[in-house]
Amino acid sequence: ILATRYIIQQGVQWKVGNGQSIDIWNDDWGPQQLQKRHGSRDIARVDELIDTERGHWNLPVLNEVFTRNSVDAICAINLPNVDTHDSLVWKYTSSGQVSVRSAYHLAFRIFTESWLHNDFPLPPELRVFAALLFSI
User: Fold this and answer.
1) What's the CA angle centered on 90, arms 73 and 85, to 5 degrees?
2) What is the pLDDT of residues 98-124, one digit of tens each?
3) Which three-class secondary structure state does DSSP give residue 112?
4) Total Cβ atoms within 10 A of residue 100
């Protein structure tokens, strides 16, 4: 089970609810390459980007903190309900639920990309898991 930890970490992302659990800069929650404006205020969590009274993204804050492309990418994310907690979902299925098939495909992609680039940054326990998995 521990050997699959790396695969799970690569396959999950946050689905925004109230934004209180999501670190803007370190968690996978949507936009990949957020660009911060120079000299803007420091913010840490996604909830600081949400207008909780209206249940929408807080455009004045977004425009102050991020570049236009980043603002557009963030605004493309639907906010289902700001009273809902954030949740982790599997990003490789439309349902957000992990499946053995999608986890296998992700593991295979990680393994083959690492193998092709000869950099093989896989943790030792994942190398053992991958060797066993792909010998089937």
Assistant:
1) 70
2) 898 998 889 888 877 766 565 656 666
3) helix
4) 7
The tens digit of pLDDT for each residue in 42-84 reads 999 999 999 989 999 999 999 999 999 999 999 999 998 778 9
Instruction: Indicate the pTM of the whole model.
Output: 0.74
45 CB contacts (<8 Å, ≥6 apart)?
A: 19, 20, 21, 22, 23, 24
Task: Count other C-beta atoms under 10 Å from residue 129's C-beta.
Answer: 21
17-31: buried (b, 16+ CB within 10 Å) or exposed (e) per residue? Answer: bbbebbebeebbbbb
Q: Are 3 and 129 in contact (CB under 8 A)?
A: yes
- Which of 94, 93, 95, 88 has its CA nearest to residue 104? 93
Tokens of 69: 């492309």
The DSSP 8-state label assigned to residue 3 in this structure reads G
DSSP string, 25-53: TTS-SS-SS--BPTTPPP--BGGGGEETT
Residue pair 85/18 in contact by the 8 Å Cβ criterion: yes
Q: Helix or strand or coil: residue 58?
A: coil
